[in-house]
Amino acid sequence: MIGFLYTLIAFVVAISVLVVVHEFGHYWVARRMGVKVLRFSLGFGKPLWMRRFGRDQTEWVIAAVPLGGYVKMLDEHEGKVAEKDLARAFNRQPTFKRVAIVVAGPLFNFLFAILAYSILNMTGIEGLRPVVGKVAESSLAQQAGFRKGDEFITIDGYPVQSWDQRRLYLYERALDRATVTFTVRDLNGLTQERALDLSSLSAADVGAGLLERQIGLFPPLPELEPVIGTLDERGAAALAGLQVGDRVTAIDGQPVKTWQDMVKTVSARPEVSLRLRVQRNGATQEFSVTPQSIESAGQRIGRIGVGVRIPELPAELRVMVRHAPLSALAEGVETTWRMSALTLKMLGKMLMLEVSTKTISGPLTIAQYAGASAQIGLDRFVMFLAVVSISLGVLNLLPIPVLDGGHLLIYLIEGIQRKPLSETALHWGQQIGIALLIALMALAFYNDFMRILY
């Protein structure tokens, strides 16, 4: 229950921050353009709190449903406007002003991400040393000549200071099916180059595990012991009575020495009752656990709803990457740009049916990530906010009616034909946009529920 509340609070905080950032962009530019703002609302539905401020007596509202927000401007399309205020109505503004006001929302999302990444880069981001701990057999990495102990120096000329630092760049190059050149320092201290050919990868291979699962490079992590670190309250293990901190020593009488031993056995036996012997507070206990069956990579595997206890990394494997202010800003701009471009590329691949729509996440998955990142630490939560802010900015620029990008599309069409669109065209465009958004949200919720249930 406490975990659920923590996740809920983290989710509400995340959504509130990002909505305020987005809508404040619209509000701030509208005010600078001389447009009268009637209301700034965080959330939808019945107002829980409202105050009026400023010479225009703008209503500042916190509403009952904290899943969005809006800025309401004076507009003849939404009601009668007094004669004295006509010049300040949104619909009376020249096209360049309306474009500026609409673009400001997504722009502020990108600026927020740049600011967040810049601050993190200045304060420092902890990571793993970029040293190869293992090269998978018959992998792309092995074919490229990587060896255990290789330390990354650059990737295509970009300096590498931590294991995860250039993942976004690798995602881009994998989508392009390019060859990437790593400059490494081997165990003998010699500087060498490794040419990594990514032409055999598909768009579906691009994801969080690209470097490890698809390329075959693993960092030098300590071996994971079979100790439960996290527990899904609805999982088979929790229902059977297992607890965080339990050490699994045997399954059906077979010794378990590593976490991978346990995963291998459980995965291979979905819907089959297993006898788990565990050590708890110095005592040995046994539990009967039946793994739930889920689909993964087209196969049915077993899952009992446990996560491994992550051991503390030795100091020699950890690095703290910090940048001077200007360098931090440059890194923030580059990361935001690459993330935005990658999001657009993945959306394009999805439309071309090269990437599964199962990758689309809804509010339930976002809430889970919000809670998990907040529990890790403030820096990870801020990083999570930056990623979602970029996604929100890109999504709002899509040319779908009712989104900011849809409004920009309308202004473009009106500019080309040199006259406003008809009320009928606007009405049908809005209906189509709403239908598309409902379909997208339905798909996102479906994916969320399928992840939770299976």
From TrEMBL:
<dbReference type="GO" id="GO:0046872">
    <property type="term" value="F:metal ion binding"/>
</dbReference>
<keyword id="KW-0862">Zinc</keyword>
<dbReference type="InterPro" id="IPR008915">
    <property type="entry name" value="Peptidase_M50"/>
</dbReference>
<dbReference type="GO" id="GO:0016020">
    <property type="term" value="C:membrane"/>
</dbReference>
<dbReference type="InterPro" id="IPR036034">
    <property type="entry name" value="PDZ_sf"/>
</dbReference>
<keyword id="KW-0479">Metal-binding</keyword>
<keyword id="KW-0378">Hydrolase</keyword>
<feature type="transmembrane region" description="Helical">
    <location>
        <begin position="381"/>
        <end position="413"/>
    </location>
</feature>
<keyword id="KW-1133">Transmembrane helix</keyword>
<dbReference type="InterPro" id="IPR004387">
    <property type="entry name" value="Pept_M50_Zn"/>
</dbReference>
<keyword id="KW-0482">Metalloprotease</keyword>
<dbReference type="GO" id="GO:0006508">
    <property type="term" value="P:proteolysis"/>
</dbReference>
<feature type="transmembrane region" description="Helical">
    <location>
        <begin position="425"/>
        <end position="446"/>
    </location>
</feature>
<feature type="transmembrane region" description="Helical">
    <location>
        <begin position="6"/>
        <end position="29"/>
    </location>
</feature>
<dbReference type="GO" id="GO:0004222">
    <property type="term" value="F:metalloendopeptidase activity"/>
</dbReference>
<feature type="domain" description="PDZ">
    <location>
        <begin position="116"/>
        <end position="188"/>
    </location>
</feature>
<feature type="transmembrane region" description="Helical">
    <location>
        <begin position="99"/>
        <end position="120"/>
    </location>
</feature>
<dbReference type="Pfam" id="PF02163">
    <property type="entry name" value="Peptidase_M50"/>
</dbReference>
<feature type="domain" description="PDZ">
    <location>
        <begin position="204"/>
        <end position="282"/>
    </location>
</feature>
<keyword id="KW-0472">Membrane</keyword>
<protein>
    <recommendedName>
        <fullName>Zinc metalloprotease</fullName>
        <ecNumber>3.4.24.-</ecNumber>
    </recommendedName>
</protein>
<dbReference type="InterPro" id="IPR001478">
    <property type="entry name" value="PDZ"/>
</dbReference>
<keyword id="KW-0812">Transmembrane</keyword>
<dbReference type="InterPro" id="IPR041489">
    <property type="entry name" value="PDZ_6"/>
</dbReference>
<comment type="similarity">
    <text>Belongs to the peptidase M50B family.</text>
</comment>
<keyword id="KW-0645">Protease</keyword>
<dbReference type="Pfam" id="PF17820">
    <property type="entry name" value="PDZ_6"/>
</dbReference>
